[in-house]
Amino acid sequence: MDTDHARAVLKAHLGLYRSFPYADLVRRIDHSETEEISRAQGEFWQVEIQFFWDDVPGNNIRVIGSIDDGGPTAYMPLCESFIKSPEGRFIGE
Fold it and tell me: In b/e form, how buried is each residue of 30-46, taking b as 16+ CB within 10 angstroms?
């Protein structure tokens, strides 16, 4: 897998969720969103975004994104994440 390109695709997907208000992320807690992205020659990437409470319910939300190409990387996908506070701040950045 071209990890530089895959990381750029994943960061672009996470960028969308970074722009969401905290309340919109809360509605997605304990759910995941998956998308297949077509690439050349019938290949694809799968992007999965998951939403969790980072510590205690009602506080910070951790959003984790992963990307793989359906091959061996499916067992160890490339991952990125961010944490958003109820006030809309990004934690640890």
Answer: eeeeeeeeeeeeeeebb
Query: What is the three-class DSSP state of 75?
Result: helix
Q: Tell me which residue of 68, 64, 66, 62 sits closest to 84, measured CA to CA.
A: 62
DSSP string, 1-32: --HHHHHHHHHHHHHHHHTS-HHHHHTTTT-E
Q: Where are the domains of the chain?
A: 3-84
Which whole-number Å values give the CA distances from 49 to 4, 26, 58, 86, in the listed order?
Answer: 19, 14, 20, 19
Distance in angstroms (rounded) separating the CA atoms of residues 65 and 82: 9
Distance between start and end Cα atoms, the chain = 28
Q: What is the pLDDT of residues 21-66, one digit of tens each?
A: 999 999 999 999 999 988 877 788 999 999 999 989 999 999 999 9
